[in-house]
């Protein structure tokens, strides 16, 4: 199982990457900061200064339809914000 699932490419994450050299990734829910740091350094060839993580729990949603109550939930996610050294960058669109 891979530690890095996919990069977060939103307007806010892109501005943060351009201005502050901080990149966002969705990562495995069980990965810790050291594993995330090693995976980023190995995958993109940059040196990581700091890793911050956020865990999102699933949200349960119910709706009433003709067939009765329908219950669904979102996936649980973990997002990592990685700060790299000045002068280095990660290009998501080159690969």
Proportion of residues in β-strands: 35-45%
Low-confidence stretches: none
Choose one word for the global shape.
elongated
Strand order of the largest sheet: 1-2-6-3
Helix content: 10-25%
Mean pLDDT: 93
What is the H-and-E element order? Answer: EHEHEEEE
Structural class: alpha+beta
Alpha carbon gyration radius: 17 Å
Largest sheet: 4 strands, antiparallel
Could you explain the architecture of this structure?
By secondary structure, the chain is α+β, with helices and mostly antiparallel strands. The protein is 23% helix and 41% strand. The chain contains two helices and six strands. It has helices at 11-20, 33-44; strands spanning 4-7, 22-27, 48-56, 60-65, 68-73, 77-84. The chain has a four-stranded antiparallel sheet. Strands 4-5 form a two-stranded antiparallel ribbon. A hairpin with a 2-residue loop joins strand 4 (60-65) and strand 5. The model has no long low-confidence stretch (mean pLDDT 93).
Give a brief rundown of this model.
The chain is of the alpha+beta class. Helices cover 23% and strands 41% of the residues. The strands form two sheets. The chain has a four-stranded antiparallel β-sheet with strand order 1-2-6-3. A two-stranded antiparallel sheet has the order 4-5.
């Amino acid at each position: 199982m891979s530690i890095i699932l996919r990069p977060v490419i939103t307007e806010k994450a892109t501005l943060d990457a351009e201005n502050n050299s901080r990149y966002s990734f969705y990562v495995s829910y069980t990965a810790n900061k050291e594993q995330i740091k090693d995976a980023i350094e190995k995958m993109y060839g940059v040196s990581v200064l700091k890793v911050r993580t956020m865990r999102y729990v699933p949200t349960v949603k119910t709706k009433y339809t003709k067939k009765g109550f329908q219950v669904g939930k979102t996936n649980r996610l973990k997002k990592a914000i990685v700060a790299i050294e000045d002068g280095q960058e990660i290009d998501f669109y080159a690969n």
